[in-house]
Amino acid sequence: MASASTATPVGTQSLTTLIEADFQVAPAVAGGERALNPYTFGLRRAVAGYGGFAVGQDWSNFQYVAALPETADFVGVTDGTVLVRQMLLRYSRPIGTGWTVSASIENPETVSAMAGATALSDNDDDSIPDVTGQLLWASKGASLSLTGLFRSMRVDPANGRPAATAQGYGVSLAGIAPLPTGKGDDIRFMMTGGRGLGRYVGANVAADAIYQAADDRLVAVPLVAGFAAIRHVWTGTLRSTWMGSFQRIWNPASASPLSTRQVWDTAINLFVSPLPRLDLGVEARLSHRELANGSAGTLDRLHVTVKQGF
Fold this sequence. Notes:
310 residues, mainly beta, 2 domains, 4-stranded mixed sheet, Porin, membrane, Porin_alphabac, porin activity
């Protein structure tokens, strides 16, 4: 990952900018391992800020990024975390010692499935921005975030059927709690629930909504998701994290029997930093997925990672 930031005095405050990019797997064969293993250099964040306002592509205000644990996987607790970067306009304001309140309007995009089908479709039919709010408290390494989200979803099928709308909403509680060991140990957690949150949670395991052609209705899909992680520092350069995450989805009866009903994941790792900004890690992971028809399976993985910071 590469990033560049600036801070320019403008009046009594600073105008800040941040651009962040990394190598990402693109659609089709990019990242395929048959021959050249190609990857695409892609944008992560591009945001400007001034006087409490921020505009551009950034982490959603509905997500508390600081609660994510250290992991050898891309996210580690993917099944149970809010995970969205998108265009937004956000305003943040301190309201007391350790307290901050923020609100945002963000890019709307309904990801739906047709009744009985498993394929998810990006519709780009929404006209009302998603709205979020966050109340954050932080003090002496501890923090607690309470966020809310409201969405107005719309699907306009290309087959001549009438457009349908539905409302989505969600609440997420996340935080970091230091443990009294004096070593830097902590507990990190997140719990999220609501309707029509599919694309915001767990890398879109669930659809936001199911379009029912039988009655031209859009049905928001309810879900609950969460994770917890415990970090233990063995020595100044050696530490471990155990983490577990889950997501439970209540698909309507019209959804495909191959839709995901629930997923869970657990992992434990060991990281060492033999040199400043050099991290070596190994992680064992067990994942489980169950479909609406009762079919289920598990996956075992072993991750090894090397990260050099600059």
